[in-house]
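R.M. (postdoc): so does anyone remember the format we settled on? I'll just put the structure tokens first.
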């Protein structure tokens, strides 16, 4: 029986504040997973439909994703990487070379990886600027619907792919990177006046109407490979972290500020990765930027060396996003050099009040229901005859530990 509600509230606040970090450590953050290639193979599930909407040509199109899972993994609370292909919003699919190998390798690191389709097409070749901006917004809508879909499957469908809905990362290559950056930093009041939001397929505000409403589209972080944003003026203090790779000789998407061109036609002015990260630094947004000197557009698609560089830069940064106790990495390392993991044996513990082999939130809630109890009480670990702050410290010390 709780004798002091204010004390109870304070203790519950402490647990809720530390719960995410400790729980993540208990779910695979062993120093290798999500940072190194810890699995030998992956499983691929193709053509999972996540939504639909009206395309640029006025037809309704079905939107799907391919899902990559680490083969032989036993953990069912894994972070997710959502990734979108390139193709200038005109061509491309889930099987494009700029994403497939990355999907396979991210899955071998322990992530659930989703390569998702988005609406393609240009509806006015005589007004490329407006058409391009509309295409970006369609992509943002579809990316948000894909994010919501994953949370919906976790809540309503029994979590078929074993995801942690609090740890979803969004990224992309070229056009897919535009989607990720605008998803993170564009807000409803910043959508350009140039876009007619009353058009079919563009309604629904910043969230869009591509499906799975009622769930959050927020992401933990974003990554960009050869991407850009309409303007870094949209970025604000407190925005989500970002990691990018970009070649200095990119003639398709500017490395700094510049104009996107298509078939020698000017399309739109944008801020490339260099500017994005300069602004991120000035705003205190956690970020990592890796410059590929003299490299052209999406070099990871054509070079194994650039692929390895891109994989390590993105996973080095994002592994700390999903496992906050990891040391920060912003740079290149050998993802095949898997460190030896020494697992600590389970301990015997009275604190496993709801016996499931781990000291978790269930034990904490049962403990709190007896806080302040006098006599023979559940939670009196030190045998003093009452459940007190010393008992709370005893269970808190073991929180996240496995028990025999």
């Amino acid at each position: 029986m709780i004798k002091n509600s204010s004390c109870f509230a304070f203790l519950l606040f402490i647990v809720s504040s530390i719960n995410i970090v400790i729980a993540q450590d208990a779910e695979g953050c062993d120093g290798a997973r999500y940072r190194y290639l810890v699995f030998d193979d992956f499983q691929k599930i193709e053509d999972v439909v996540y939504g639909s909407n009206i395309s640029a040509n006025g037809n309704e199109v079905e939107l799907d994703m391919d899902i990559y899972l680490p083969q032989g993994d036993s953990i069912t609370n894994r972070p997710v990487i959502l990734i979108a292909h390139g193709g200038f919003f005109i061509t491309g699919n889930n099987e494009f070379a700029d994403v497939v190998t990355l999907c396979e390798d991210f899955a071998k690191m322990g992530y659930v990886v989703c390569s998702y389709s988005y609406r393609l097409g240009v509806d006015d070749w005589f007004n490329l600027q407006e058409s391009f901006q509309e295409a970006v917004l369609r992509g943002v809508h579809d990316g948000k619907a894909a994010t919501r879909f994953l949370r919906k499957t976790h809540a309503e469908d029994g979590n078929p792919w074993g995801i942690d809905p609090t740890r979803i990362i969004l990224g992309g290559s070229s056009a897919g990177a535009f989607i990720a950056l605008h998803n993170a930093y564009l807000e409803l009041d910043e959508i350009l006046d140039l876009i007619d939001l009353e058009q079919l397929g563009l309604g629904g505000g910043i969230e869009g109407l591509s499906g799975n409403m009622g769930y959050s589209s927020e992401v933990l972080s974003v990554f960009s490979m050869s991407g850009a944003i309409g303007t870094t003026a949209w970025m604000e203090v407190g925005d989500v972290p970002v990691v990018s790779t970009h070649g200095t000789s990119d003639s398709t998407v500017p490395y700094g500020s510049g104009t996107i061109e298509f078939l020698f036609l000017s399309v739109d002015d944008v801020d490339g990765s260099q500017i994005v990260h300069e602004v991120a630094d000035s705003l205190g947004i956690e970020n990592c930027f890796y410059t590929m000197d003299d490299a052209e557009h999406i070099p990871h698609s054509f070079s194994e060396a650039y692929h390895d560089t891109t994989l390590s830069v993105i996973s080095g940064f994002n592994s700390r996003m999903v496992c906050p106790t990891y040391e920060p990495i912003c740079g290149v390392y050998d993802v095949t050099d898997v460190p030896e993991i020494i697992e600590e044996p389970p301990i015997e513990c009275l604190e496993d009040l709801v016996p499931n082999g781990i000291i978790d939130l269930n034990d904490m809630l049962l403990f709190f229901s007896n806080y302040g109890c006098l006599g023979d009480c559940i939670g009196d670990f030190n045998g003093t005859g009452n459940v007190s702050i010393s008992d709370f410290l005893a269970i808190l010390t073991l929180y996240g530990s496995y028990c025999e």
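R.M.: ...and that's the designed sequence above, right after the tokens. Also worth knowing: The chain has two domains: 5-20+345-397, 31-322. The chain has eight helices and eleven strands.
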